[in-house]
Amino acid sequence: MSQSPTAAASPDFMPVGDDSDDLPRTFRREKEARAREARERAAQERAAAPSLPLGSDVPPIPAPQVYTAADVRPAVAEETFPATVRAFDVPFFHLMTFFLKAVVAALPALILLTVILWFMGAALQSFFPSLVKMKILLSFPNG
Which residues contact 28 (CB under 8 A, 6 or more apart)? Predict the structure, then answer.
């Protein structure tokens, strides 16, 4: 039982129109779970729908509708899925330039923070002159 060389070398691909196989496994499971949930909910609504009363003049109570319009609930493709980042691949020089830019961008903020804290300290010293001031004196020997 031998196969032709072209048949053995050709892989089996799914049809191009089937887009559910293009999704990652977790997204596909979530999509299938939501579809199953919708089917179960529809079956429960059908089972809970009142039947026509026999010989009674009481009109049936309509079953409550959960979704009244199509735009109330977004499509499955638009909903977010929980995800976990397991790898973050950034070239070293790109990461280095990003952090250098962040340091340069932080310098004006540090200068502004220093000025604000200096003015706050001066205001506290003028309103409360009895506050203890701490000074660090550096002295170098002459010899």
Answer: 20, 21
